[in-house]
């Protein structure tokens, strides 16, 4: 595959749009990207904004060398049934649907097309995503390079064996919601201490953003940075002791296991 390979994007919602942006950023010419989207108004919006094309599902998959399935998990079976008779035999199929296994997709297609399973997350929308890709049987080195290349344009990408995808879902897939819940709790706590809603929100968000940037750019571990800000018997130590008494580590581990288990059930 090359930057001039034809790419079909099936489902052009918010994540589909983020992936279109990533494809273009990684060097794919917009006129090589064709979307299939049920909502005509949405399709026209993306055509105007990104100079991509639109086509009916059957003709789109017949021409594509890479097929991005950005549909809801509950819609996957019907989409696969619709495209199996038209799909280009040389195309790699890349699924972004949570919980849907490579074998589920291969069996539903009934073709020998190689399949790749990807778990993205919502920060992809701002170019700070975390994606984990699992390569199925038959994915060529060129296809793998292409996939990891455009996913890298959405933020960061790692490659994992498929049996770890449920753990990825519990970590980076659902992880942004854990973070947002913690921010909500901090804002509420600040307001309880007397700060206005606006000031509580500003203080919390900038503190979190700054801490994340420090963690990302300092080269130091979270443990080292936590220790650096914690003076013995100081204010931070008092707060962390409270977290410890409520067993924060166990609470987070239990929550992540619950997410992992639910991901396995959805498969």
From TrEMBL:
Documented EC number(s): 1.5.1.2
Q: What is its main location?
A: cytoplasm
The question of whether Transmembrane helix is a record keyword is answered with yes
Instruction: Provide the Pyrroline-5-carboxylate reductase catalytic N-terminal domain boundaries.
Output: 6-99
Where it sits in the cell: the answer is: Cytoplasm
Indicate the transmembrane segments per the record: 7-28
> Got a GO cellular component term for this one?
cytoplasm
Provide the binding site for NADP(+): 10-15
Which Gene3D superfamilies does the protein's record reference?
NAD(P)-binding Rossmann-like Domain (3.40.50.720), ProC C-terminal domain-like (1.10.3730.10)
Q: Domain named Pyrroline-5-carboxylate reductase dimerisation: which ranges?
A: 162-266
Q: Which residues form a coiled coil?
A: none
UniProt pathway annotation: Amino-acid biosynthesis; L-proline biosynthesis; L-proline from L-glutamate 5-semialdehyde: step 1/1
GO biological process terms held by the UniProt record: L-proline biosynthetic process
EC class (word): oxidoreductase
- Cite the entry's keywords alphabetically: Amino-acid biosynthesis, Cytoplasm, Membrane, NADP, Oxidoreductase, Proline biosynthesis, Transmembrane, Transmembrane helix
A GO MF term? pyrroline-5-carboxylate reductase activity
Q: Which reaction does it catalyse?
A: L-proline + NADP(+) = (S)-1-pyrroline-5-carboxylate + NADPH + 2 H(+); L-proline + NAD(+) = (S)-1-pyrroline-5-carboxylate + NADH + 2 H(+)
One Pfam entry name: F420_oxidored
Function comment: Catalyzes the reduction of 1-pyrroline-5-carboxylate (PCA) to L-proline.
Describe the family membership recorded for this protein in Swiss-Prot or TrEMBL.
Belongs to the pyrroline-5-carboxylate reductase family.
NCBIfam families with a match to the protein in the record: proC
Recorded protein name is Pyrroline-5-carboxylate reductase
Gene symbol of the encoding locus: proC
């Amino acid at each position: 595959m090359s930057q001039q390979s034809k790419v079909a994007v099936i489902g052009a919602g918010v994540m589909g749009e983020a992936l279109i942006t990533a494809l273009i950023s990684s060097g794919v010419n917009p006129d090589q990207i064709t979307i299939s989207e049920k909502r005509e108004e949405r399709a026209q919006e993306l055509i105007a904004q990104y100079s991509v094309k639109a086509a009916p599902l059957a003709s789109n998959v017949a021409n594509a060398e890479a097929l991005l399935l950005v549909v809801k998990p509950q819609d996957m079976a019907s989409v696969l049934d619709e495209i199996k008779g038209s799909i280009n035999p040389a195309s790699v199929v890349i699924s972004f649907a949570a919980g849907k296994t490579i074998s589920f997709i291969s069996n539903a297609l009934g073709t020998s097309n190689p399949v790749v399973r990807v778990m993205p997350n919502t920060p992809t929308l701002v170019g700070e995503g975390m994606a984990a890709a699992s390569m199925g049987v038959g994915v060529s080195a060129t296809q793998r390079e292409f996939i990891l290349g455009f996913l890298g344009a959405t933020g960061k990408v790692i490659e994992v064996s498929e049996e770890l995808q449920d753990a990825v879902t519990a970590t980076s897939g659902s992880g942004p919601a854990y973070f947002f819940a913690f921010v909500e709790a901090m804002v509420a706590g600040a307001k309880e201490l007397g700060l206005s809603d606006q000031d509580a929100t500003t203080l919390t968000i900038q503190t979190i953003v700054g801490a994340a940037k420090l963690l990302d750019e300092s080269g130091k571990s979270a443990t080292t940075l936590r220790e650096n800000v914690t003076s013995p018997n100081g204010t931070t130590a008092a707060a962390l002791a409270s977290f410890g008494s409520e067993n924060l580590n166990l609470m987070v581990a239990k929550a992540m296991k619950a997410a992992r288990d639910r991901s396995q059930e959805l498969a």
